[in-house]
Amino acid sequence: MHIVPLSPSLISPCAAVTRAAFGDDELFEWLLPHRFTYPAHWQQSVVNRLHMRLNSPGMMVRVALSDKEDEWWDESVGSEVLGYTIWERNGKWREYEAVWGKDGLAKKFERFAAKLAAKYSDLLHIDQTVDYEHMALYRAGSSAYDKVMDDQIGKGGDHIWLTVLGVDPRFQRKGIGKRLLRWGLKRSDEEGVPIGLCASPVGCKLYRSVGFEDAGILEIEGLPIKDVTMVRWPNGIRDASQVSVEQ
Description:
Layout: E1 2-5, H1 11-21, H2 26-31, H3 39-54, E2 59-65, E3 81-90, H4 97-100, H5 105-124, H6 132-140, H7 143-153, E4 159-167, H8 176-191, E5 195-199, H9 204-209, E6 213-219, E7 226-232
Parallel strand pairs: 4-5
Antiparallel strand pairs: 1-2, 2-3, 3-4, 5-7, 6-7
Helix pairs in contact: 1-3, 3-5
């Protein structure tokens, strides 16, 4: 197995992993109750979001691909996407833009086009997988995610947010999730910033094993889902001012 940054050719396979990994997820069931009735709509929706992230500075998508040396290698299929992570850098990070990505006219155009398409889809309810009333409630309460880190490090503080960790169910419990986490853990330690995330009860064990601590319960008004909020401190030090950051 090897891990690479997201590229355009990997977007569709990553979207397929999303559908496989989160098909039974409680939040997806609430937001996208018709996802199995309209699988093509769900696939396209995830493709659009990944395309947006590919072109967004401060976002990093890391993809795990199978190798011939892997026990699960299938010669008839070739290299497969096993899973991926999405990391978001918040706060002051421009000194690390060589890692987190530089902006440019082409990327700005791609983001503009993606946002326009998303607005058009929302306005006309093109995506048939979505419960638009539930989606509106979710978006209205999305500031609760920001509050997770605000409560820990102060409003607007530097941090990394783990947006997604998804592994194809065929390849789960093989250490792939932990391998995918290494990149973000290293960035946290080298940049001297904490990582925050929200996890289902099932995922907490993995995150605790690599140094995350429970920070509370995320509650969004109107949502039936309550996720565990977690934080990992750089180099195990809660006060980031004590961390020696590599320049």
